[in-house]
Specification:
There is one protein chain. It contains 17 helices and 18 strands. By secondary structure, the chain is of the alpha/beta class. The protein folds into two domains: 116 residues, Urease, subunit C, domain 1 (Roll), CATH 2.30.40.10; 340 residues, TIM Barrel (Alpha-Beta Barrel), CATH 3.20.20.140. The strands form three sheets. Strands 1, 2, 3, 4, 5, 16, 17 and 18 form an eight-stranded mixed sheet that branches.
């Protein structure tokens, strides 16, 4: 009996998926080319967009119709920088703030693994139909497999463990997310091992400090990129200083996964990015969230409060932790909260103008959040990222291009070539909005319906 029921459910799911659906009467906005089509019809056949047309259509050819009058239809959003091995809660990076005495890290990781379906659903609720996980343990590849196997989940690209200039022993439970590599040959061997898992990217964590100057790790960066490219795998690099980012791009990096935050970018650097067709992901939101969390000044948006995981959000109140269990980094932040805000302000005084300069020069910018880091909430953190991109001086259409067509380029591969636009033959990943984000980017979260792979989800039903 149970088998028959499962077969019946599967047949129903298949038939609803294959059903022709038409979105009728909405305004289609495709940031890839800036086209705005009023009173348009988008015909979805199975998991693909069959056609986009304006004006009156033959009702018989439309299948099931969804009235989108006064609505706005966009490609599904893409967050190009997340980490599924991190929850966003207070306990998720013991290498940065060690709360093992409050919650052992192994318990944190077990909780994360048991809540992946919930995280997937929260991305869909936010209209985010695609994400790129730019580094984590080898079990990251299982996350991709799991996301591909269920319907209410974003498309997922993954990288494996980060190839790093520094070690992070506190994150190593036998399957480390960050691996210290000491020689070029070691880097090549590890890339060969990673290549067996078919990663979408290889990630380098290019950390520079007084003990790790830029040039000391550069031969390993070169070897990693050469070996990755030999396997036809692109390389993303964490490089937050101008000279580190410059070195990474000179060595052949395909993607920079953060803004440069130590000094203004120069014209030579901008030209280098353009000439090499490098994609940059700014991750502005993450730069404020550690300091704000630790100093008890967290500025979660209404979207984060509504659609973030409530357990994660509840954990972020550091005043609930006994004083004797607070790491020194948190005690320092609580003792001088103004200093924490001043540091964030200085970061944005560099990062925001850098973003504007790169955008104005035509460098490809892909939106991303670094979600999963402490205080950066999986899913709705993207809407805070939009606010900060607006503060940098980007126009709504530019921001929307960063989170759709540009982000699809970062995702890459055959999938990346069929997302991020509303076009015949593209995947039916769409967001239907109640209000026009071209008037105000804040409207990008005014979501009525999300469509992923042709499956229709009324927004308010997704998390229930």
């Amino acid at each position: 009996m149970r088998t028959l029921l499962c077969v019946a459910i599967a047949l129903i799911a298949f038939s609803s998926r294959a059903e022709k659906i038409s979105l009728v009467g909405g305004t289609v906005i495709d940031p890839a080319d800036g086209k705005v089509l009023p009173n348009a019809t988008v015909v979805i056949n199975g998991d693909k967009i069959e056609r986009v047309a304006m004006g009156k259509q033959d009702a018989a050819a439309l299948g099931k119709q969804i009235d989108c009058a006064s609505k706005f239809i966009f490609p599904g959003y893409v967050d190009t920088h997340v980490h599924f091995f991190q929850s966003g809660d207070l306990f998720t990076r013991p290498d940065g703030a060690d709360f093992n005495s409050v919650r052992p890290y192994k318990d944190e990781v077990a909780w994360i693994k048991s809540h992946l379906d919930d995280v997937f659903a929260r991305y869909i609720r936010c209209g985010i139909t695609t994400v790129v996980d730019v580094g984590g343990p080898m079990w990251n590849f299982e996350v991709r497999k799991k996301a591909n196997a269920i319907t209410k989940a974003p498309r997922v690209a993954v990288a494996g463990p980060l190839i790093s200039s520094v070690s992070r022993e506190k994150l190593d439970l036998g399957d480390p997310p960050i691996l210290k590599i000491d020689t070029p040959e070691q880097a090549r061997d590890f890339v060969r091992k990673l290549a067996e898992q078919k990663p979408d990217l290889v990630k380098i964590w290019y950390i520079v400090d007084k003990d790790h100057p830029v040039d000391s790790f550069r031969p390993i960066v070169r070897a990693t990129i050469e070996e990755s490219h030999a396997h036809k795998i692109r390389v993303a690099v964490h490089a937050t200083e101008l000279e580190t980012a410059r070195a990474a791009v000179e060595e052949g990096a395909d993607v920079l996964v953060h803004s440069v935050i130590d000094k203004p970018v120069d014209d030579a650097f901008v030209k280098l990015l353009k000439d090499r067709h490098v994609i940059l992901c700014p991750t502005l939101v993450v730069f404020e969230r550690y300091g704000r969390t630790f100093s008890h000044q967290l500025n979660l948006t209404p979207e984060e409060q509504r659609w973030g995981n409530p357990e994660v959000i509840a954990s972020l109140d550091v005043t609930k932790i006994p004083q004797d269990k607070l790491p020194d980094r948190v005690k320092t932040a609580l003792a001088d909260p103004k200093a924490a805000l001043d540091k964030i302000k200085k970061t944005y005084e560099v990062a925001l103008p850098n973003l504007k300069k790169l955008e104005d020069a035509g460098v490809t910018i892909a939106a991303g959040t670094d979600a999963g880091n402490i205080g950066t909430i999986h899913g709705p953190a993207l809407f805070r990222e939009f606010q900060l991109m607006k503060e940098a001086g980007l126009m709504p259409m530019q921001i929307l291009q960063c989170v759709t067509a540009n982000a699809a380029k970062l995702f890459g591969g055959e999938t990346g070539a069929h997302i991020g636009k509303i076009e015949n033959g593209y995947f039916a990943d769409l967001v239907i909005l109640n209000s026009n984000p071209l008037d105000d980017i804040a409207h990008a979260s005014d979501i009525h319906t999300v469509i992923k792979n042709g499956m229709v989800y009324p927004a308010d039903s997704i998390l229930h």
